[in-house]
Amino acid sequence: NMSLFTINFDSCSASILKHILNPEIEYVWLQQHMPNSRLEWWKADFPISPSEYMKDVEIRCPIVDLQMTTERFLANINMFEPHGLELIQLTKKVPNGLWTKSIQERALNDVLVKNGMFLRFSLPHECEVAQLQCISEEYLEKLIEIPVIRELVL
């Protein structure tokens, strides 16, 4: 079983990822992103299928996975500031068939590492305790030397 190195952070938000993400690792995968965590109806242009979307339709509780380059995520990080997030940084794109809900928890890290995972960051809600797991202990040790990171480490 692949062991990951772990750091827990005191109350933080998505912006900490500016200091955490490795710019040399190309992709990020946001899992189960909820654009609106409140149970309420709101209007949006919403995809109904890969080729069609409805304009200005009332939606509630959409949950989506997002995949993009690390560079694009960092350029838009402020959009994610009020959200919790489950983020995986990977060396390659996530294959269509990789569905983490179908993988047993004890096998999950092995499967993710085989698919290019470098690190995983979990922040249940903004301003909550977060967890960072990484395949490289050396990378985490370098992060802890950064003052803004060091002051948040639990």
Distance between the termini: 26 Å
Assembly annotation: single chain
Q: Strand order, biggest sheet?
A: 1-8-7-6-2-5
Determine the strand fraction and express it as a percent band: 35-45%
Describe the 3D structure.
The chain is of the alpha+beta class and 154 residues long. Helix content is 23%, strand content 37%. The chain has helices at 17-20, 70-75, 77-80, 105-114, 137-144, 147-150; strands spanning 5-12, 27-33, 42-49, 52-59, 64-69, 85-90, 117-123, 128-134. It has one domain. The strands form two sheets. A six-stranded antiparallel sheet has the order 1-8-7-6-2-5. Strands 3-4 form a two-stranded antiparallel sheet. A hairpin with a 2-residue loop joins strand 3 (42-49) and strand 4. 18% of the residues are buried. It is built from six helices and eight strands.
Summed up, what is this model?
The protein has helices at 17-20, 70-75, 77-80, 105-114, 137-144, 147-150; strands at 5-12, 27-33, 42-49, 52-59, 64-69, 85-90, 117-123, 128-134. It is of the alpha+beta class. It has one domain (5-37, 63-150).
